[in-house]
Specification:
The chain has one domain. It has five helices and no strands. Helices cover 82% and strands 0% of the residues. The chain is mostly helical and 136 residues long.
């Protein structure tokens, strides 16, 4: 429980810093790919780049927040103040609260991971495009 508390504090203090860096990397990779060609609407390209960066940042923060919470020790959830706040967010009480918490964090964590992997695909696609290799 003590190690999980340290992990949670580490994630809570740093997730947005790292997520913003990841978002900018995604934004830049997509911008390099989109602005390589002169055709297309400039404003739409800019909007796509920034929205992809924001999505990547949120997905990264969600992934590193929710995946460890799936495996949070029961003692941490019921005794630590941060764990109690997370349990309260399920909206249930009693025996089903821990089960509902695990199911919800699993679903949210998997959705965040899917979008995080999508941002990875954007970066890999940009790298492949600039290395003159075919994606297919």
């Amino acid at each position: 429980m003590k190690n999980f508390r340290r992990l949670h504090i580490l994630i809570a203090n740093n997730r947005w810093r790292v997520a913003v860096i990841w978002g900018w990397i995604t934004c830049i990779a997509l911008a390099l790919s989109l602005f390589k060609y002169s055709d297309g609407v400039f404003a739409f390209k800019v909007f796509m780049c920034f929205s992809a960066g924001v999505q990547a940042a949120i997905a990264f923060a969600g992934t590193i927040t929710f995946l460890p919470l799936i495996f949070a020790p029961k003692e941490w959830l019921v005794s630590d103040p941060a764990g109690k706040i997370w349990l309260k967010r399920t909206g249930t009480s009693g025996k089903s609260q821990i089960i509902a918490f695990r199911i919800l964090t699993c679903l949210i964590g998997l959705a965040a991971t899917f979008f995080f992997l999508a941002s990875c695909a954007v970066i890999i696609g940009g790298i492949l495009e600039f290395s003159k290799k075919s994606v297919i």
